[in-house]
Amino acid sequence: MKYDKRILKITLGVLFLTIIGIVIYKICSLNLGVEDIKNYVQSFGKIGPIVYIIMFALVPLTFFPDSVLAIAGGLIFGLFKGYIYTAIGALIGGTISFYISRYWGREIIKKLTKEKLDNIEVMINNKGFTIIFLLRLIPLFPFDVISYGAGLTSVKYKDFILATFVGTIPGILVFTNLGSEAVNMGSTSFYISIALLILLFVVSIFLKNKFISKELKNNTK
């Protein structure tokens, strides 16, 4: 019985990796500028939103900049729908990364991310929800690395997904708003969207220096 389960697990893993490999190849073969993403998604007509959500959900596996996709989402769907679809994609993508690292382990994840996860892992183990929430507020930290790091810890999935949902609200709103205002380039609303983007990064740097850097120092003592 255990042998059969092991074979099933390996088979499903190989199938999953094959599908992901095909998707990554297709995505990488595209010229992924914001305008190109717009044309690609709109070419699917009514199922365009589903295609966009799938693309965003696979960002952690392709390591494509999620900010570019979020801007494209705002350009394609407008602020409100762009936010909804992007948030759904982000939550699905975060969930995929979380469970990949939880079930496949540290070595595979380190090869995927090519980054050290030790510090993030320690911080999340100590202050799960709070640290994930703060990291999600800071676009300077890669979305996928946070998700993979969280999966290696003892943090509960419900805390991870709630912190992800709440913490990504400002960033997703700013980037989708920038995309939605791109059609009004030169207008007051466009410059306001640029100002909000700058404000987001200023606040991010403050949070990083005030809380995350302090937490990192405490963990290395």
Please outline what is shown here.
The protein has 221 residues and is an all-alpha fold. It has helices at residues 2-28, 34-42, 48-57, 59-62, 66-104, 106-113, 118-137, 143-151, 157-167, 169-180, 188-220.
Report on the architecture of this protein.
- The protein has one domain (31-220).
- It has 221 residues and is mainly alpha-helical.
- The termini are far apart.
- It has eleven helices and no strands.
- Output the structural class: mainly alpha
Helicity level: over 70%
Which percent band covers the strand fraction?
Answer: under 5%
Reading the helices and strands in chain order gives HHHHHHHHHHH
The span between the termini is 47 Å
Unreliable residue stretches: none
Radius of gyration: 18 Å
Tell me about the largest β-sheet: none
Approximate shape: flat
Mean pLDDT: 79
Kindly state the number of beta strands. Answer: 0
Total count of helical runs of at least 4 residues: 11
**How many domains would you count in the coordinates?**
1
